[in-house]
Amino acid sequence: MKSTFLKITLIAFISLGVISCKNTANEADTAVEEAAQATEMATEYSVDAAASQINWEGEKPTGKHHGTISLSSGTIHLNDGKVEAGNFTIDMNSINVQDLTGDDKASLEAHLKGTAEGKEGDFFNATEYATAKFEMTGIENNIVKGNLTIKDKTNAIEFPATVSIDGDKMTLKSETFEIDRTKWDVNYGSKSVFPSLGDKFINDAIKLNVLLVATKA
User: Which regions of 116-176 does DSSP assign to beta strands (E)?
Assistant: First the structure.
């Protein structure tokens, strides 16, 4: 009996240790780091806001919506064709829904931006938080790493992307990746935040795709 009790206690202790290690690893994976700094040899490129955009897609059990968000500014620093540092600012008032028209389009855009009366804080509350920002912390093996700030909340993210240069123009194009919106307190319709929603929920994951075009300053 004593031997059995010791075995059970040991298994429980090991299990707790494994869980603790996993939690620590997850926290380390999403740790916010200092923004990368460009060297003196780097060349600065200014983001072409008109040619750049972020594509987004949100989904729920009954369907999904997609659209775009515009960039307002940004700079990228390249050294010998490689990105050393960079940042860009996102215009949250530019949220555009592409799969709806008329009143339905206007209604969803107002809800997402938070310009609909009584729904200001449901999603992005662009009146109070007019911009979001991304700062690179590094890029390695075509994986861009950085800090994304939305609604004054900053979390580390990473995504695969390719960088190409054509004369004085550079293009950074990401593959589609996902972020968990609840990490930025965008909690409306989240089943992980409000378990009683049943099947009337909106997925926490938002799919994103970044197209960034910049020209030599």
Answer: 131-140, 143-150, 153-166, 169-174
